[in-house]
Amino acid sequence: MQKIQKVSIIIPVYNEEKNIKVLLDELEYFFKGFKYLYEVVFVDDGSKDYSYSLLKEAALKNLNFKVIRLRRNYGQSAAMLAAIDYASGDVVVPLDADLQNDPNDIPKLLNLIEEGYDLVSGWRKNRQDRALDRKIPSMIANKLISFVSGIKLHDYGCSLKAYKKDILEGVRLYGELHRFLPVCASWNGAKVVELEVNHRPRMFGKSKYGLGRTYKVILDLIVLKFLSDFSTKPIYFFGGFSFVCFLFSSLLALWSVYLKIFRNIDLDGTPLLIFSAVFIIVGVQFLLMGILADLVMRTYFESQNKKTYQIKESVNLEHDYRQVSIPR
């Protein structure tokens, strides 16, 4: 059984000023009975309201609160990466700022970490969101991710999780890849388990996510699968597409010859097959260019140790930053 020394709770924040006061009060009450050393790392992801001012005021009163203000809105993955970079605990627990996660579930997650699991993933079994634009797309995405990755979880989108810090060392997050952390951890040998957690209705504001994020998740899943299976042998991937395109083109050519010779059909008047072939090839080219662009972007950031975020100002961070090592 592993003994937890310190817990880092990380909370990305974007335009949540109405929720922050309630969240701070809830955390203050929660930590009264908390048995571990703790810190809370808030990351203001370019909020346009008074979120940062409220967080800064709270951090000046409580040295266990750290606040990072990013220069602009970089997205949840970059905000989480910033928090992970500056977290000093041996267990990291992400928490949403919108009050839908229940802090009282955190000890249950930590109990499973102490039992020997490397990652405990929350499952919002009774999710308090709209069905049409939140629950149904999420359910489809979860099944798709489970099918592609082979990691069977009900709720990849739940922010409330517990990670051993060592499994996050060297992690780089892009796009919407924060939701794939259980997949990456499991592929690297982490022991993953799922736990039902409470999910509460949103009290103030509105969700920053909707149907528009679905296609981004699908594209990120394609990239993740590519990096998992073909990062050291990309020629198999690209060669496979080339073979399929060549085979398809050959079949079309043979079919055109058959129509011309044996059916005496004038191909000049039937350009549909040509258009079909062109669109398929163009679609494949776009997909491959997207993957290549993603690889170039990763090389740009990781080879130079560049980050996907920039900090504008911070509170209580000066002595606790631990440089994240990046595998070469």
Describe the fold and architecture.
The protein has 2 domains: 6-210, Spore Coat Polysaccharide Biosynthesis Protein SpsA, Chain A (Alpha-Beta Complex); 233-303. The chain has 9 helices and 8 strands. It has helices spanning 17-31, 51-61, 76-86, 106-114, 131-149, 181-187, 214-230, 234-262, 272-303; strands at 6-13, 37-44, 65-70, 91-94, 119-123, 161-164, 192-196, 311-315. Strands 7-5-6-4-1-2-3-8 form an 8-stranded mixed beta sheet, with helices on both faces. Strand 2, helix 2 (51-61) and strand 3 form a beta-alpha-beta unit. Helix 1 (17-31) runs parallel beside helix 2 (51-61) and helix 5 (131-149) runs parallel beside helix 7. The protein starts with 5 loop residues before the first strand and ends in a 13-residue tail after the last strand. 32% of the residues are buried.
Here the CATH topology of the largest domain equals: Spore Coat Polysaccharide Biosynthesis Protein SpsA, Chain A
Distinct helical segment count: 9
How would you name the CATH homologous superfamily of the largest domain? Spore Coat Polysaccharide Biosynthesis Protein SpsA, Chain A
What is the correct CATH architecture of the largest domain? Answer: Alpha-Beta Complex
Strand/helix succession: EHEHEHEHEHEHEHHHE
Distance between the termini: 32 Å
The neighbouring-strand order within the major sheet is 7-5-6-4-1-2-3-8
Q: Based on CA inertia axes, which overall geometry fits?
A: elongated
| β-strand amount | 5-15%
For the biggest sheet, the summary is:
8 strands, mixed
For the record, the count of structural domains works out to 2
User: Which value, in Å, is the CA radius of gyration?
Assistant: 24 Å
How many E strands? Answer: 8
Unreliable runs, pLDDT <50, ≥5 residues? 321-328
**Secondary structure category:** alpha/beta
